[in-house]
Structures are given as C-alpha cells and as structure tokens.
Amino acid sequence: MTSLKTTRLVSLDAFRGFTITAMILVNTPGSWSHLYAPLSHADWHGCTPTDLIFPFFLFIIGVSIWFSSKKFDNQLTGPIIKKITKRAIFIFLIGLLINAFPFYNIEIEKFRILGVLQRIAIAFWLGAILCLFFKKHKKLLFVSGVILLAYWAILFFFGGNRPYSLASNIVRALDIKIFGAAHLWGGKGIPFDPEGLLSSLPAVVSIIFGFMTGQMIEQTKQSALLPRMVLIGVLCILIGWFWGGFFPINKSLWTSSYVVYTTGFALLFLSIFIWLIDIKKIKGWAAPFFVFGTNALFAYILSMIWVKVLFTITWANELGTSTNAYEWLYQSIMVPIAGNLNGSLLFAIVHVIIFWAILLELYRRKIFIKV
C-alpha cells in the first residue's frame, strides 16, 4: 500500500475542528464553580482531558507546517522567514487586542500582555523556523531533546527550594522581571501567567513533534503508518508519565514531561481520525468538525470576543446588585432548565452550536478566514 501522499490531510481538518470545538466547550461554561471534572484544568500538577486541548492545537500546527511547506520544498528562505514572522506578529497582535477588548476601559498599568494567541504566535514562529531549518527527523529529535532537557534544568536549578511550585518557579520570576507583576494573569491568586514567556520554549517542541509526525505520515507506507503512530504514541505517554515522577506533568508550566505525555495522546487521536476518515473513508460523523476545522483560529477568536461582549453588557438586577449578560443567560435560562452543573454544561454546548451555525454559513460559501 502507498503512503498518504497528499498536500491536505482531510483527517487533520477534522482533528483541528474537534480540538477547537473542545476548546470552546471548556472555555465557555455557564459557571466556573460548576464544572464536570474532565472539563476543568488540573489545579496545578496533573493532566485532565481539558489539559490535552492546547497542546493538541500546537501539535496540529506542526503537522500543518509540514504539509503547507511542501509547496516550497520545505525550504527556509528569506521570503519564507518574512512570511512566518508577519503571521506570528499578526496573531500576537490579535491576542493583545482581545486582551484589550472592549477598549474603552483599558487600564494600561494592569494590562495583560501574554495569552493563548500570544503563546501560539511565539511557538509557531520559533517552531516553524526550527522545523524548516533542521528538517531532518533525527536533527529535530535532537533539538527537541535539548530544549526539553534544558528547560527541566533551568526550572530545577533556578527555581529555589520548590522549583515546580506556583509561587517560586522561574517562569513566574522571569515574567515578573520582564513584564511586571501587574501585567500577568492573576487567576490563581498571585501574579502568574500560564502562557509565560519561558514556558513558551517547551511549547515549541509540541509544534516540532507535530512537524515530525507530518513527515512520518507522508513517508511511511499506509500499512505501517497506524501501528507506528500508535506505538510511538503509547511510548510517549509512558515516557511522559515516568518523567512526571521527577519533573511533574503540569500545563501551567508546560513542563517537558507534559509535552511528551500530551504528544502521545495527540498521536493516538490523530491515528483514529486518519483510520476512520482517510483510510476507511467514513466521514459523515466528522462533518461538524470539518466546519470548525477550516476556520479554526477565527472560531476561537470569535468565541473569545463574544464572551467579552456578554460580560461587558451589565445592569442592576432586582436585588440592586450588578449582573451581566453572561451570568443572566446562565442563571435565568440554563439553570432553570438543567440545574447548576448540567446548566453550566448546557450553556457551553449551546455556544458551541451557535458558533458552528455561524461557521457553517462560511463553510457553505467557501469563505475561509486565515489568521
């Protein structure tokens, strides 16, 4: 049997759409106080299904870089570097604009600089350049190993007595030094950004592993591809889990063990998508994911802006306290229908459906918004 030699892997669009669907689902609960455990991030160390979503997306970017760069023979040239840089800056700026939205109430002294799109921009820029510069599988594996081991050493030797704790890790210390504490996310009670600058370095490896997977998909005979992907995926999970005993699996720090562990699951998920869609040609079940997958980053950006719009619309309720449209939709519509916990999930599902309907119209009109 031949290899899957194609400039566009159809299953990859579906996997991307699945990942964005999951991202919107976990980002828009009716209440953060009422979540099913799998739909919540690990508080610190550990990995829930929700913690797989972001590394999946970076892994998918890496696979996409391999296939999209084939048209210029995977060469790193001046014009290509310029193109990569322009796109990375564009994504980073969109992230800043989302942080600033709705613009009229910006507190510059407390403005958050980093974020999800900023992490994507940084990892994409450095990851794409490294992938196209080194290209060869063995060289990329060596570079990845150096980055992951170096990151482990940096955190261990420069993190004090508790190098992997929330308060004393070097990622937080470096971000405070560069940006200032007031410009970091404060969701964990102290200034700490889960999309920190230093922790973006191992995130680059999530992209490199995706690029290497793209190589493997094209260059491996179809009969051997899935067994190889599954075997490597299981090995990555086991290696990541074992390494986690020394360097804890942690999304907020994007630890090296977390990179290897989540890459294993990404390989297993992608192998399922390839088997069903590209090999067995069973595509109907994935139709909603194709819709999300072809406008993935746009869907994420749209969802983030919409949530901010809902929080911006405020008024005084019957008790005289302030409420907003987000809270009102959850409390007044979802909770009466399904209760607190299931109402929170219903809120997220309804939003997934709304965004799918919007993207479906774009899909039908063949409008693909590249971010």
3D structure, described in words:
The chain is mainly alpha-helical. The protein has a domain at 41-281. Helices cover 64% and strands 2% of the residues. The protein contains twelve helices and two strands, in the order αααααααααααββα. A two-stranded antiparallel ribbon has the order 1-2. The chain starts with 9 loop residues before the first helix and ends in a 7-residue tail after the last helix. The mean pLDDT is 94.
Short overview:
This protein has twelve helices and two strands; from the N terminus they run αααααααααααββα.
Task: Give the topology.
Blueprint: H1 10-27, H2 53-68, H3 78-100, H4 116-134, H5 137-158, H6 170-179, H7 200-219, H8 222-243, H9 256-279, H10 287-293, H11 296-312, E1 314-316, E2 322-324, H12 325-364
Antiparallel strand pairs: 1-2
Helix pairs in contact: 1-2, 1-9, 1-10, 1-11, 1-12, 2-4, 2-7, 3-4, 4-7, 5-7, 7-9, 8-9, 11-12
Query: Roughly what percent helix?
Result: 55-70%
Radius of gyration: 21 Å
Q: What separation lies between the terminal Cα atoms?
A: 36 Å
Helix/strand-derived category reads mainly alpha
Based on the model shown, name its key terms.
371 residues; mainly alpha; 12 helices; globular
